[in-house]
Amino acid sequence: EVQVLQSGAEVKKPGESLNISCKVSGYNFLSYWIGWVRQVPGKGLDWVGIIYPGDLDIRYSPPFEGQVTISVDKSVNTAYLQWDSLKASDTAIYFCARLHSDYTSRYFDSWGQGTLVTVSS
Amino acid sequence: DIQVTQSPSSLSASVGDRVTITCRASQSISTFLNWYQQKPGTAPKLLIYSASTLHSGVPSRFSGSGSGTHFSLTINGLQPEDFATYYCQQTYKTPPETFGQGTNVEIK
After folding, report:
1. Is A3 part of the contact surface with chain B (CB cutoff 8 Å)?
2. What is the distance in angstroms between the Cα of A93 and the nearest Cα belonging to chain B?
3. Quick one: average pLDDT of A107-114?
4. Confidence grade of residue B108 (pLDDT, cut at 50, 70, 90)
5. Are the beta carbons of B43 and A114 separated by less than 8 Å?
6. Is A28 an 8 Å CB contact of chain B?
7. Per-residue pLDDT for A66 more than 90?
8. Per-residue pLDDT at A52
9. Are B46 and A50 a contacting pair at CB < 8 A?
10. Of A19, A47, B63, B83, whose CB is crowded by the most CB atoms within 10 A?
């Protein structure tokens, strides 16, 4: 069974750094893309970016490029989303999800429970 | 970026109703269109991928159709557990693989 488990809620101040995690199990970690999706409370879903653990290929949505860093640790089957300097506008729920991808289809099929990040002075 | 526009943004319906949500892409995306359901306080769940393929475990009252730029999600016989927000997503071109704005299905 595929499982996607995210780290717990975080409360940070503007300018602080943060690393949230997404640990997966039940499948070959190296063979599937992992993605991150942002949801500002009460708003829709924003695609942040994806990473392929097999070769560390990373794609960022333009608004997020340079604002966050996506990485993985293959030894512990975990993906990360990192900020060097948080802003109040980063306040949101961040979901990670496994991306199924082949020649005819591409979709997020297993999602984590979400990590609420609150940035406030 | 490919834009995806969902309509309506919200709708009110009764149990047993047939509900249709549409999604329009700003350029042809073949059938690289997915539908997700999200209930408050929970993660989105995949309903339909490749425009019309029902994900495992999803009830058959959900169906999807379309190709190119016009797509639809239909719920035949709305059930109490179907009241939620629905999102479409294009995965034809990356990055980004954009989501629609969402459609909130409320109880009439």
Report:
1. no
2. 10
3. 98
4. confident
5. yes
6. no
7. yes
8. 98
9. no
10. A47
